[in-house]
Specification:
The chain is mainly α. It has two domains: about 5-50, Arc Repressor Mutant, subunit A; about 65-230, Tetracycline Repressor, domain 2 (Orthogonal Bundle), CATH 1.10.357. It has helices spanning about 5-25, 35-40, 45-50, 55-80, 85-100, 105-115, 120-150, 155-180, 190-205, 220-225.
C-alpha cells in the first residue's frame, strides 16, 4: 500500500526551512549561510533538507518565490476589485507597498545593513526580478483598466506596468539606502523628499496624470519611522 503523504505536515516542514533561511539571510547574509546553518536552525537532518531542496540555491529560489507570492496575495484583491476606480486601486497599492513593517528602527537598520551587504548581492538580484515580475502583472491589470476608461494616457499598458514596477523597486532601494544603510552622516530629510518627489513625478508622467494626483509615500511619516528622534543627531 502506498504511503499517504500528510500535505499539511509536509508544507509546515518546508516552511520551517524557508523561515530559517530567511532569518539567516537577514542576519548573516546568503554567501555566509551554509546548508549546515539551516540544519542547525531547524534541527533537521541533511537527508530531510534534500528531500525538499536540491541545493542551497534551490532553497533561495523557494524563499524568493514565497516572498513574491506574499506580495501577490496582498495586492491581488486590490487590483482585481472592480468596485474601486483605477486611481483608488493605485493609491491602495502604493499604501500597501509603503506600509511600515513590524520591526523597530534598530532592527530594521541592522537587517537592511546585512541585506545591502556584498554577501546578499545574489539574493537582492533574485528578489528584485521576482518582485518586479509579480508587481508588473498586477499593475498592468490596473493600468489597462484605467487606459480603457480614459483615466491613464498609456499607449502600452504592459510596458507601462513593467516600467512602473521597476520604478517602485528603484524607489524602495533608494530610500532604504538613504534611510537605513549605515553611513557617516545623519539622514538628510531634503534628500529623502527629493527621492520621493522625483519618483512621484516619474509615475505621473508614465501614466499621463496631472502633477500632484498621486502620492507614493509620505516623506514625513517615512522620516519618523527611520528616526523617531531626529533631534538626537
Amino acid at each position: 500500500m502506498a504511503r499517504t503523504v500528510d500535505v499539511a505536515a509536509h508544507e509546515r516542514r518546508r516552511n520551517e526551512f524557508l523561515d530559517a533561511a530567511q532569518r539567516l539571510i537577514e542576519s548573516r547574509g546568503y554567501e555566509q549561510m551554509s546548508v549546515q546553518d539551516v540544519l542547525s536552525e531547524t534541527g533537521a537532518s541533511r537527508g530531510a533538507f534534500y528531500h525538499y531542496f536540491g541545493s542551497k540555491h534551490d532553497l533561495l529560489s523557494a524563499v524568493v518565490d514565497r516572498f513574491s507570492d506574499t506580495i501577490a496575495a496582498l495586492l491581488d484583491p486590490i487590483t482585481s476589485d472592480s468596485a474601486l476606480s483605477p486611481m483608488e486601486q493605485l493609491r491602495l497599492v502604493f499604501a500597501e507597498l509603503s506600509a511600515p513593517g513590524s520591526l523597530e528602527r534598530e532592527e530594521l537598520a541592522a537587517t537592511l545593513g546585512v541585506w545591502y551587504s556584498d554577501g546578499n548581492v545574489l539574493v537582492r538580484q533574485q528578489f528584485r526580478r521576482a518582485i518586479i515580475d509579480r508587481l508588473a502583472r498586477l499593475l498592468t491589470r490596473v493600468i489597462a483598466r484605467g487606459a480603457r476608461n480614459g483615466v491613464f494616457a498609456v499607449p502600452d499598458p504592459d510596458r507601462a506596468g513593467l516600467i512602473l514596477a521597476t520604478l517602485l523597486q528603484d524607489l524602495n532601494d533608494a530610500l532604504a539606502d538613504e534611510l537605513f544603510v549605515p553611513r557617516s552622516h545623519p539622514v538628510d530629510p531634503h534628500a529623502v523628499e527629493r527621492i520621493v518627489d522625483a519618483h512621484t513625478w516619474a509615475v505621473e508622467r508614465i501614466l499621463g496624470l496631472p502633477d500632484g494626483s498621486t502620492a507614493l509615500i509620505d516623506a514625513t511619516t517615512l522620516l519618523s519611522v527611520a528616526d523617531p528622534d531626529p533631534g538626537r543627531s
